[in-house]
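Dear colleague,

As promised, here are the two records you asked about, laid out in our usual form so they can be pasted straight into your sheet.

NAME FIELD: protein one
SEQUENCE, THEN STRUCTURE:
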Amino acid sequence: MNKLFSALFTIMIFGLLALSIWYVGIRLQTLFELHRRWPIQIAVAAAVIGAMAAIIAAVRSSSPLAGALNVIGGYVFTFYIFLLFALICLHAIQIIWPLPIAWSRMVALALALVVTVAGALWANSFAVNESEIRLPGLNKEVSVMHISDVHLGYHHGRDYLEEIVKETNRRNPDLVIITGDLVDSNAALMPGVLDPLSDFTAPVYFVGGNHEKYVDTERVLELISQQGVHVLHNEVVETNGLQLVGLDYMNADDSSFEMHPSDDPRTIKSVLAGLSLKTDLPSVLMHHSPVGAQYVTEKGIDLMLSGHTHAGQVFPFTLFNEVAFPFNRGLYQQDITQVFVSQGAGSYMLRVRLGTSNEINLLRLVASS
């Protein structure tokens, strides 16, 4: 069923993309008063398909050229998306209020360009956001820096990771939790890129995400472990009066639809059923994607930490995410379990943020009254 839904979803996305290319071609022909439609439609299709190819092809590469094309492709695709929206809005206005053609084309291009540049600039930095979370049975306050979705590679590299480590150490947390998608391409596996991980002053615990699988899970985890990071594989460890449950990236169960399904035959449901937890210690579960919360609750776990969603990263995908992910960003309550979802410290596919922000999260865990 998962495969069927994924196939239908993919067909729908590509169908909408083809429709949008056709529409943009027609509108640009009209606004630029061109006599022939096919040259402009071919140009639009080439730009969009070329941008998508550049974004996708860079995952398995460490070439600087591939990296440059990846970033440029992301900007081109972002520009296209907002040009499409600008053209739709102007088209709707023109139905009831005729606008000068020269003015319309200038406004459409300018809006798309300004939004793309603003989003590109916004994606170059991150914020440190603080939250207080109350846990039953906690003997003392525990400060946790939750980091997710850094996506080291072509969008951000060693310098960005160094800044994350620096800002984390300034706040002196008791432990650091990284919930996957630390790397985004083979460029992140180049010598020295992951070295700043060894500079964290607090113990660091890591679970993998879907992008570690896309790159090379075994190699990625080996390099991360070499930096003194504790990589957890479906296991429980105790630290600072907490039970940390670290799960590999997997589906919630065998029947639920997943936006990014895992090929792991195990599921959150099956793995949690086989783990033993103490009832007198509060528990925190680490899993890259905020799925399977119902099984986390059934296990009696107090807090689930995830990322993966990017909160949609770029408007209007932010609206889609609110529907696709019941737990999208921030803190939620699922029966006895609290679920915290980070927007992520980096960007994926598009080196752009609009309507969301790169963040790392300082979580102050305190005893509930």
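NAME FIELD: protein two
SEQUENCE, THEN STRUCTURE:
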Amino acid sequence: MIKKSFKSYGMIVLLAAIFFMINASAGFAQPAQDKSIECSKEIAKTVVHTTALGLGNILKDVKGEEKRIALIRAFVGPIRFYPDNSGYFYVYDFQCVNIAHATQKDLQGKNLYDHKDAKGKYVIRELSAAAKKGGGFVEFYWLKPGAKGEQKKLGYVEPVPGTKYFIGTGVYLP
């Protein structure tokens, strides 16, 4: 049953992203680069919100922390979005322990409370604080898959309802 929910829910997330990518790109009267960033921000916000709600609903029936973590990792791991596939999900608990990361599996299980980006910002602390407020954007630097060094990124996070986790994604900025 959970496997079937994954497939259905994954399709909903992808369709929502495509819908917003098409509609947002047609509706902004801004320079192309600004339009693209605004479109990506809308996609980020939409897919995070939709995925947070879906995960919260699925997780309410899963007993045991290990099973919940395994489900989260299996779900977010393969998802990619944006035209260049740079969109992915990450999940942390509110104490800044990485639960799942789609592109940096080596972070899973690590506490990143003291992690600073290239500019000295406590990234995960700020993401956690934004999620505790119900969600929001945080600007920081992070490793972009396929690029050298940390790249400027605008992350969006929301709490996963009924859990001690928050989920996020981001937009790499020029």
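A couple of things worth noting about protein two: The first helix runs from residue 2 to 27. DSSP finds four helices and five strands in the chain.

Best,
R.
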